[in-house]
Amino acid sequence: MNTTPSPVNILAIGVHPDDVELSCSGTLLRHIDMGYTVGLLDLTRGELGSRGSAEIRTKEAQESARLMGAKFRHNLDLPDGFMQWSEETIRAIVRVIRAAKPTIVLANAPADRHPDHGRAAKLASDACFYSGLVKIETEDYSGQPQEKWRPKALYHYVQDRNIKPNLTVDVSDFFERKMELILCFKSQFNHEHNDEYAGEPETPISGEAFMAYQRAKATVYGRDADYSYAEAFVMERLPGVRDLVSLD
Questions:
Q1: What does the alpha-carbon distance between residue 85 and residue 88 come to, in Å, rounded to a whole number?
Q2: Mean predicted lDDT score pLDDT of the chain
Q3: By C-alpha distance, which of 158, 150, 61, 69 is closest to 106?
Q4: Sign of CA dihedral 76, 53, 159, 9
Q5: 224 CB contacts (<8 Å, ≥6 apart)?
């Protein structure tokens, strides 16, 4: 799996290595199937997680990205749990955005059970803006000056807390594959069926009940739009359409 950012249509950012899989991988699979390209950016290695380790989670993340069909998966190796807003951090994310040149960015929920999620959402949002400022200078991965780039839209995916979304994406045809991607993170999920990690602490996300919750949540979010399964997103700006008839 390539780790160097390169141009893609959609850049999905997560503060922990499994955030993208849990919250928007069905959407990414759907768009890859439509011919769009996808890149993944993890801000930390999730080293403070109760189960597994940074090294294990990195290997799991790379395998998931390979199965997804992502063009790259990059990790900024920021400190899990203690990542803060700083010029250095913003510039690091801007560097990836300018290298990837995405039209769309997907990012963490603005507020959630895990405090890292909200901080990461703010970082992603600010980096998308600052990436479009010509006087903020960055270099690419070969040391060459980068051009400014501002994505067309930023969507925050819904995570643990079921906040009211602005839009939902039909992932009915891709939901089972999404679950396979989640289960790439064997150290974190479905511990009843993973003897390798049976001796590690149980967590609110490690058991079968959490996997059932993922299916139930996708069912609930799909209901209003008459989808079997959906993923939900919130936006910072008012969305617009040119054809009301085409809306589901």
A1: 8
A2: 94
A3: 158
A4: positive
A5: 168
- From the list 160, 137, 164, the residue with the least C-alpha distance to 148 is 137
Residue 110, both tokens: 């603005």
DSSP three-state, residue 214? helix
Please state the rounded mean pLDDT for residues 214-235. Answer: 96
Contact 68, 181 (CB under 8 A): yes
Average pLDDT for 35-57 = 93
pLDDT in tens, 197-214: 777 788 888 888 899 999
**Global pTM exceeds 0.70:** yes
Question: Which residues are paired to 145 by β-bridges?
Answer: 139
Q: pLDDT at residue 2 above 90?
A: yes
DSSP letters spanning 53-79: -HHHHHHHHHHHHHHHT-SEEEEEEEP
Both structure tokens of 206: 């490690």
- What is the enclosing helix (H) or strand (E) of 153? strand 153-157
The residue length of the chain stands at: 248
β-partners of residue 104 are 10, 153
Answer for the pair 235, 167: CB distance below 8 angstroms, yes or no. Answer: yes
Report the pLDDT value the prediction gives residue 74, as an integer from 0 to 100: 98
Distance CA 130, CA 195 (A): 46
Residue 239 predicted with pLDDT over 90: no
Structure tokens at 80: 């899990």
Residue 215: pLDDT over 70: yes
What sign does the CA torsion over 25, 31, 35, 36 have? negative
